[in-house]
């Protein structure tokens, strides 16, 4: 998610190009949201998390702070924290601080520099912690590093990033996390809740226009990295609620009839046509509980903030081993 790296590798360039060309060839044009996060996009996203209108980060941080004793009790003594998509550090520190003598920390992220920064910061902050960064896309199939200390493994997936996955991806992700932590493990997952559409849309179309810049940056990235000629002033950021999917969607709306090229490929846009760039699904307790169950988990605890905007779920394996 946090791409602090310089140019794309050959493989990533090909993947980016084929995702964009294939996505723009569909009846509903679409580009996978992972490409929003080049260096500029990652900076803009960090800025979004500090906005008044974007409540999820604040609400989740408040829950983690308020529930430190419960988190400690839930994880038990000497746990190993496995974080999917290494975060900016505040939430990770809050959780590691809550835990009783954490033994290990395994941050997982595709962005090399970012991952190492996070790993080093946690090593410095928690002196006796065993830290092993894993440079992988958390959606790919991968194994835990060898030599992990003994202890209960606790998966940590904050930020409602699960909302950016569709139902099949979310289930696959939760199943893999269960495989990683094993039958004695546990998980802590941050999930944004369904609420008034007005509040949701304000979070994804903020008054300072940072989310609009974040979305439009995708076209700037296509121009720079794939040799595109998109006119950024001919598109507008659009956030809308999809009631059937229970998701806030980000789109780039074409303001006029126009063509844009990427190398030799030309794409036509009608006035009012959109490129779908992200879905951010929202859950309620029942909906998330059902998803978790399909992946082999049960909800042990569900902690909400005062305004009931966001929920941190503590999950246990459905087939937990009975205490010896
Ligand atoms: C990273 N992800 C959880 C954010 C979200 O809320 O879906 C990305 C984002 N998109 C627009 N604003 C924030």
Please summarize what this structure is.
The chain is built from 10 helices and 13 strands. It is of the alpha/beta class and 324 residues long.
Description of the structure:
It is a single chain. The radius of gyration is 20 Å and the shape is globular. It starts with 9 loop residues before the first helix and ends in a 7-residue tail after the last strand. β2, α5 (90-98) and β3 form a beta-alpha-beta unit. The mean pLDDT is 95. By secondary structure, it is of the alpha/beta class. Helices cover 36% and strands 23% of the residues. A seven-stranded mixed sheet has the order 4-3-2-5-6-13-12, sandwiched between helices. A four-stranded mixed sheet has the order 1-11-8-7. The chain has ten helices and 13 strands. The protein folds into two domains: 10-48 and 198-281, no CATH class; 55-195 and 283-317, Vaccinia Virus protein VP39 (Rossmann fold), CATH 3.40.50.150. It binds N,N-dimethyl-L-histidine.
């Amino acid at each position: 998610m946090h791409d602090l790296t310089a140019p794309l590798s050959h493989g990533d360039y090909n993947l980016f190009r084929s995702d964009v060309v294939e996505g723009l060839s569909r009846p509903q044009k679409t580009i996978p949201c992972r490409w929003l996060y080049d260096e500029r996009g990652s900076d803009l996203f960090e800025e979004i998390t500090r906005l008044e209108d974007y409540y999820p980060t604040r609400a989740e941080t408040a829950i983690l702070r308020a529930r430190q004793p419960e988190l400690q009790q839930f994880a038990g003594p000497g746990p190993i924290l496995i974080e999917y998509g290494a975060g900016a550090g505040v939430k990770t520190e809050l959780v590691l601080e809550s835990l009783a003598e954490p033994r290990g920390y395994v941050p997982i992220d595709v962005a090399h520099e970012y991952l190492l920064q996070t790993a080093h910061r946690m090593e410095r902050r928690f002196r006796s912690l065993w830290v092993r960064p894993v440079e992988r896309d958390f959606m790919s199939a991968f194994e835990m590093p060898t030599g992990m200390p003994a202890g209960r493994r606790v998966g940590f997936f904050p930020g409602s990033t699960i909302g950016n996955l569709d139902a099949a991806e979310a289930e696959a992700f939760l199943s893999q996390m269960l495989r990683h932590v094993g039958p004695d493990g546990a998980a802590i997952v941050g999930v944004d809740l369904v609420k008034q559409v007005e509040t949701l849309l304000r979070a994804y179309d903020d008054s300072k226009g940072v989310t609009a810049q974040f979305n439009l940056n995708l076209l700037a990235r296509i121009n720079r990295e794939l040799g595109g000629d998109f006119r950024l002033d001919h598109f507008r950021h659009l956030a809308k609620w999809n009631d059937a999917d229970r998701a806030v969607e980000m789109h780039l709306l074409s303001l006029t009839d126009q063509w844009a090229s990427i190398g030799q490929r030309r794409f036509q846009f009608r006035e009012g046509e959109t490129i779908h760039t992200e879905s951010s699904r929202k859950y309620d307790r029942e909906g998330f509980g059902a998803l978790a169950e399909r992946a082999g988990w049960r909800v042990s605890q569900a902690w909400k903030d005062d305004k009931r905007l966001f929920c941190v779920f503590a999950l246990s394996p459905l087939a937990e081993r009975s205490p010896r």
